[in-house]
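If you are new to this repository, start here. Below is one unmodified record pulled from the training split, so you can see the exact layout before writing a loader.
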Amino acid sequence: MRECINALWPCAMTGAVSCLAGIARMGVIIHGSSGCYYYPATVLHRELHCTFLIEQDIIFGAADRLRTLIGEISDRYGSLAVVNTCTPAIIGDDITDMPGCEDVLIIDSPGFLGTYENGYRLACESLPVTVDRERKGVNLDGISLLDPFAQGNVTEAERILSLAGIPVAAVFSSCRLEDLSHAAPYTLSTNPDLSCIWGEPAGSLLGIDRTLQTISGIQEMSGGGYPEALRSEAERAKERISRSADKFLRRFDPPSAAIFGEFSYAEYACRILEQYLDATITILGSRNQPGTTHFRVAEASSLSSVRDLLSRDLPDLIIGSSFEQMICPGAAFVPFTYPLRGMVRLRDRPLIGIQGELGLMEDVLNACMDRAVRTEAYDPHAGDGSGFPG
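And here is the target side for that same chain:
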């Protein structure tokens, strides 16, 4: 499995579980060993079940153990899903045709199948979804329990869409089981790396500019008027960011930044740092397969690759996980992607939409300012140490 000591990004099995566990009233069974169970159970913070396979099951087959567990918990949920892991997949244990388990959703997503994103999409495409062409509104996709911005993204998307008079139908993957049978014909993306097949793509909400373009496109399709309240809020937000960034740049040099995370999130962060702070992006470290961008980009899914990328050009600012923070403790740090250790995060923070852009730039400016002031405090020739000008 990729959840080894040197790996920073989960495998396909955890991706599938993160999708299924977000559906209310869906019980999720991990068909594998205790090691396969404890990793997603720890990082996803949801009730999960496991067959806890041992050597005897591997030799004689594990179908009976799975069937027993299904019978024990079936009355607690509206639906059940089983995620197959490496061991039963390798020994060829067929669990797709067990008598009495015809209504159980079986996802064959062992860790060796591929990336976290592959497993998430496989599970999402296997959900019992029916697109209702008469359903008004839009779906949301790209929501994952592993994403520290997931719930905040749902809240911000619902807020923005309500300003435009657009209801939210199904949310992949954070909704009620019954919502899946009445999905809308169109789907908005909160994280393009986790886009699903359900509904026709209707744009992205990742960033203020893309949010305005997306809402405008939906209103043109539906014949509705453009919500001026949303446009006004967006303009005020961009002005606030620009004013604060200009104040920072009057006092301090543009930062150099290394940004790590899923490609779409990280590329978005690179763009707005370049836009508002004229930042130099030393590296875009992508946890998954990188897409097209004008920034210097490399895969960064292992601790060794991250060390190598950061050692080439030490940045002033790191946006990423606790691992990048550990490697460059002297850099300003903004928490951005899993894993985030040693900190309490209670608020539902969005990355998408208007509040997402405001929040990310607020975190960046505060982190860079704190580092600059600390540097001045140790360097009597760097300035008076008074910090951010009023």
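Two things worth knowing about this chain: The first strand starts at residue 26 and ends at 31. The chain is about 40% helix and 15% strand.
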